[in-house]
Predict the structure of Palmitoyltransferase.
Amino acid sequence: MLEPDYNRIRLLEPEHSFRTWMVDPEDVSFIHLQIFNEHLLCASYCYQCQSQVPPRSGHCSACRVCILRRDHHCRLLGRCVGFRNYRPFLCLLLHAAGVLLHVSVLLGPALSALLRAHAPLHIAALLLLPWLMLLTGRVSLAQFALAFVTDTCVAGALLCGAGLLFHGMLLLRGQTTWEWARGQHSYDLGPCHNLQAALGPRWVLVWLWPFLASPLPGDGITFQTAADVGLTAS
Ligand SMILES: [Zn+2]
Ligand SMILES: [Zn+2]
């Protein structure tokens, strides 16, 4: 049986305001949200879906659907990062940065041998413009491959490392990328609670394996705010 994509939201009766969202057990591909005739505080309205949506959710024009606790649309993965897949996304960044850094270090001896054999200008051109050096016949295929793989690994490690630092900051602040861009801190419950909210109670161990049993405390539809726990400045 297909696993439900809990990041996706579809409203059953978009014309009504409502108080409680419920999962439709008949549909495994979407969460269907049942609507009740009561007003929900903090609900926002999605003009594309023409319906009220839970707080922190956001519409993705690429996925053409609202996403629970939407963080951003990842173009490399081709899908949105939201409430349910934020933890695997963070682990992917960590593991990818680690693997790429490791490969870069392993390539170090071969690269240093190349450095010793050629002038610095030649090496700089090889690392910066490997395709041009290959096409003009200035390097062998093996030297090109070494430079290309090194470039890819170093650039990938830097990209993943920067992403990990950025999302680590958001994680500790309890923000999504969208909330960070808007300067919103409504859901910052303190670093420890924020970590548990995004990674579950076993937040230390899930970095090793993101699919470890560590259930997220919320349902992606309602969230505790700093005001709820008295953390806002009076
Ligand atoms: Zn929408
Ligand atoms: Zn998307």
User: Anything to note?
Assistant: Residues 1-84 form one domain. The chain has seven helices and eight strands. The pocket of zinc ion (ligand 1) is lined by residues 46, 48-49, 59, 66 (CB under 6 Å). The first strand starts at residue 8 and ends at 11.
